[in-house]
Fold these 2 entries.
Entry 1:
Amino acid sequence: MPSCEPDFGIYVHWPFCKAKCPYCDFNSHVRHEPVDALSFADALARELAWFGAKTKGRKVDSIFFGGGTPSLMPPEAVGRVLDCIGKLWTLSPDAEVTLEANPTSVEARNFAGYRAAGVNRVSIGVQALADQDLKALGRQHSVAEALAAFRLAARTFPRVSFDLIYARPGQTVAQWRDELSRALAEQQGHMSLYQLTIEEGTRFADLHRAGKLIVPDEAVAAELYDVTQELTAAAGLQAYEVSNHALPGHESRHNLIYWRYGDYAGAGPGAHSRITAGSRRLALATERHPETWRAHVLARGHGMIEETPIETADQAAEYLLMGLRIAEGIDLARYRSLSGRAPSHLAELSEMGLVCVRGDRLVATHAGRRVLNAVIAQLAA
Ligand SMILES: C[S@@+](CC[C@H](N)C(=O)[O-])C[C@H]1O[C@@H](n2cnc3c(N)ncnc32)[C@H](O)[C@@H]1O
Ligand code: SF4
């Protein structure tokens, strides 16, 4: 019988990359000395034990190795972490176990080992289907290498996601139409299609500020977004989230936990968690610097630098921010019970065709998703 308990997930952060991509502001670090992967895996296991004590009795529905580049982890390190999770919690029989992979030929050699360790889903960062664009994005793989890795992953794992970045410098609507069509011919039921964001503190941000990197303007970006919706829908992939498209049943169970504002424990440098403890909801975060994080874990069993109860009004704001990204939207009763009131400007936003109320759920329409931040700001005002 399916359980009615909300899904619970575990996020494991692997903070190392071969090279830093110039657009990326994730907690990723390049090391010129070999990384002692097993010592990091052991530290992850210790921090997970700390979370185990805080979340006793919970059933784990999803595990996600994110990064950084988890496909640089030796399969033995992934196996150690998964064994530890299996000892600390009961795993749901259909638990999703995802690992983010960069598609170089070296990393593809690890795929069979990950599968043997228990990984059943990979998310492959193909990012572009043009070699010169991959170079401009600072990627360490060619298109041919990425496609070979993707096809190998599709043969190795029950589920794979094909991930691309669009609205790249100089990209035209016609080029994206062609590129996305080629990607759609390869995909296996799930695609993450992110618009390039210029993040503060990255090399792209410096170049952008200096006028040396021109990205598509708002009107072109909106057209690129519309083409994305049109082509994925025509292929039967539903936009179950702003940037995520899947055949029915192929949605990422893990990411749905975030968007449904469920509980998850995040282990590893710079990982975040949301955990319900009694009547309180806690926000936790760990030290970002990998070696400092490991030293904290060795000294005190965890790398936490933040453990704060979240006020119910803030929970309502977070729920809105997450929930309106997904096609199923938010449960208005849950929102009211957290915030003590209904969302603001509901009638105006509905009249403008930006949101729609279906029973006791509120969803953003296609037009609303294009201006989602503004819609959320109005609802939360
Ligand atoms: C941080 S990466 C980690 C996985 C893996 N290292 C990779 O590069 O695919 C996760 C996803 O975030 C995307 N991403 C990172 N920075 C981004 C940005 N500035 N704009 C859009 N997508 C971005 C990546 O392209 C990737 O699909
Ligand atoms: S995009 Fe991926 S590979 Fe590139 S620096 Fe960020 S985490 Fe590393």
Entry 2:
Amino acid sequence: MMRSPPGKSQRNCDGTVTELECPSLFHYTITVPTKVIAVANQKGGVGKTTTAVNLSACVAALGRRVLLFDLDPQANATSGVGLEKVEGASAYRVLLGDGSLLEKIQNTAFDGLAIIPSEVDLCGADFDLAREEDHLKRLARAVQPVVESQRFDLIFVDCPPSLGVLTLNAFAAADGVLVPLQCEYYALEGISMLNRVMSQLHDSGVNPRLALAGVVMTMYDGRTKLAQQVVGEVRQHFGEQVFETMIPRSTRLAESPSFGKPIIHYDKYSPGAAAYELLAQEFLARCDKPLS
Ligand SMILES: Nc1ncnc2c1ncn2[C@@H]1O[C@H](COP(=O)(O)OP(=O)(O)OP(=O)(O)O)[C@@H](O)[C@H]1O
Ligand SMILES: [Mg+2]
């Protein structure tokens, strides 16, 4: 007698059996390489950290394994997910050749979201790294074992507000740069410099993979004519690189770091949470597009 392979089946009222699923004899595991995204803009206070923290949390909530890498000595992303600044916990020593970045990864209280925290010692990195050989590739080298471990689908690097050695290291390690732009008059100021630095790293072979991962408009207040004008100007400049989703100016978003929680865990039904959830979906849809 032939036996049918074991699988899920349903016995119907009339006694017949319907196969619900054809069991697969082979299991394929598709591994997608970890993507490293630097969240950067040398302008201060434009929403880099808010975007890095909240996009990370929303992407994690969508089931991806996310590492938030705090590369800013201000350590705002670290406190934004509820971690204390702890001496020796940052990537600083690893960047100088001491230990592995894998040892610096910590869990957060949020499912699917891990962090490499920052603390004040990273302040010295710009100066200390500049004296080291191959100083632009320190982070790329350090991050390699994390990428190879396949523990994460995405790594978001929160960069400091400068185009100093730390940011350049993030660019040298990144697949893409995500640029938050504040909806204000000088939004595009300094963007040509950012562009030039990215091109130099790309063309000189330091990081031939480097590309713009998109531009996200932050602190948008649709009631003002200025915000609408700025968005128009930025869309004209960057075209489809600008995400459809804009992040509204919202008190809840500004409050959530003081509770050590990303917005979706602080006030899930607020407009800020909805915006970062939409941004995460849009971001992943772009990430998942096959290369043309
Ligand atoms: N959409 C928003 N609505 C209201 N406040 C916001 C919003 N996004 C950011 N903020 C607030 O604006 C300030 C600057 O934001 P954030 O720290 O994210 O910028 P940043 O670019 O990382 O700054 P820095 O350059 O200092 O690292 C913070 O106080 C933050 O809470
Ligand atoms: Mg910041």
